[in-house]
Structure formats: structure tokens, C-alpha cells
Amino acid sequence: MAGDRRDPRDHRDRRPREATAQRRAEREDRIGRLDQPQRRRPRMTLPNPDSEAFGRLSERIARFLGTGRFLVWMTVLILLWVVWNIAAPSSWRFDEYPFIFLTLVLSLQASYAAPLILLAQNRQDDRDKVNMEQDRARGERNVADTEYLTREVAALRQALGEVATRDFLRSELQALLKELDQRPYAEPLEERAGRL
Questions:
Q1: What is the domain partition of the chain in residue ranges?
Q2: pLDDT for residue 4 is more than 60
Q3: Residue 15, C-beta contacts closer than 8 angstroms, at least 6 positions apart
Q4: In whole angstroms, what is the distance from residue 95 CA to residue 105 CA?
Q5: Which of 41, 45, 113, 163 is deepest in the core (most CB within 10 A)?
Q6: 3-state SS string over 179-196?
Q7: If you average pLDDT over residues 143-165, what whole number do you get?
Q8: Has residue 81 got a pLDDT over 60?
């Protein structure tokens, strides 16, 4: 019976060599190679939120904080808080007269509102810069187009100055007719053709 027992370590040796090589490669990937220094891993990884989505959210919050609706709701909340803590029975009050908890809540709200508003302003500044660059490029294209059209109009005026106009042709034809009328005789066409 003692000979029938197998050592559990022998069980590993019976596995195919490819499986052990694969396990070794996986372990090296997990642990890293011994001939190369390991990368230092941070002890705590911070979440990496999508900056575009966070920026849009901050803009929405900043827009809401800048509305009259927010001011009305904040005023109503503060008035309810103060009235509740003054007029309610003493066992129901949660913030006595100096209203320290209310001060803490308002300063916490302000500490979050200020960076969100600044983030929204920075994003708006970035959009304004892009719009300004596009406007500048559009203006430069308009100036270039205007200069090109001005040169083309000047070239057309020069070309038209060299082209015979209707009035010029009419005056030349009238001058030729007068010249023909002043000749004492008209040559026959056959003689004219023979000279050519």
C-alpha cells in the first residue's frame, strides 16, 4: 500500500511541458523579469475621470449657480433652516442659534462652487480662443479674397481700356463713310481685285 501512494509533486511533473512553460510566462508577466528592474506601482491609484464629461458637468453646475433660481432656492433653504432652528421645539432643533452647522454647509458649498466656476470659465476661455482664431483666419481669407478681386477688377479695367467700345467703333465707321463719300470716284471692284 505504501508504494501505491504518489507524491503530489510528481503530479506536476506529469503535465505537458507546454503548460508549465505557459504558466512560467504568465508568472513572469505578472511578476516581471528578474533581469529587468520592476516598475514602481503607486500604492493607491486615483480615479481618472473623463475630463470632457467632468468639464461639461462643471459648466452645467456653474450655469445653475449663476441663475436666479439657485438664489431663490438657496434663500428659501436658509430661511427654512433658520426658522426651523429658532421656532421648532428644542428637541427637534439640530443647529442652535450661532448656526455653526449652517455656516459649515455654506462654506462647503462655496469651496466646491468656486473651483467648478473657475473650471467652467477656463473651458469658456478655451472656446473663445478657438473662435477668435477661426475668426482671425476667416478675416485673413476675406482680406486675401478682397485683394484678389481688386486685382482682377483692375486687370479687367485695363483690358477694357484696350478693347474697342461700341461708341469708338461707331465713330470710326462714320469717319470711314465720310472718307468714302468724299472720294471723287469709286474704283470698280475688278480693278481693285487685280491690284491685290
A1: 49-106, 132-183
A2: no
A3: none
A4: 11
A5: 113
A6: HHHHCCCCCCHHHHHHHC
A7: 88
A8: yes
**What are the distances in angstroms from CA 60 to CA 75, 116, 127, 138?**
20, 9, 16, 31
Residue type for 115, please?
A: P
- Region at 95 (left for phi over 0; alpha for psi -120 to 50; beta for the rest): beta
Do residues 82 and 99 touch, judged by C-beta distance below 8 A?
A: yes
Residue 170 to residues 129, 158, 166: CA-CA distances in angstroms? 61, 21, 6
What lies within 8 Å, CB to CB, of 181 at 6+ separation is none
Instruction: Say which residue, 2 or 90, is predicted with more confidence.
Output: 90
Beta carbons of 83 and 95 less than 8 angstroms apart: no
Q: How far is CA 97 from the centre of its chain?
A: 50
Grid coordinates belonging to 173:
465707321
Amino acid identity for residue 50 in this structure? D
pTM of the model: 0.50
The amino acid at residue 65 is: L
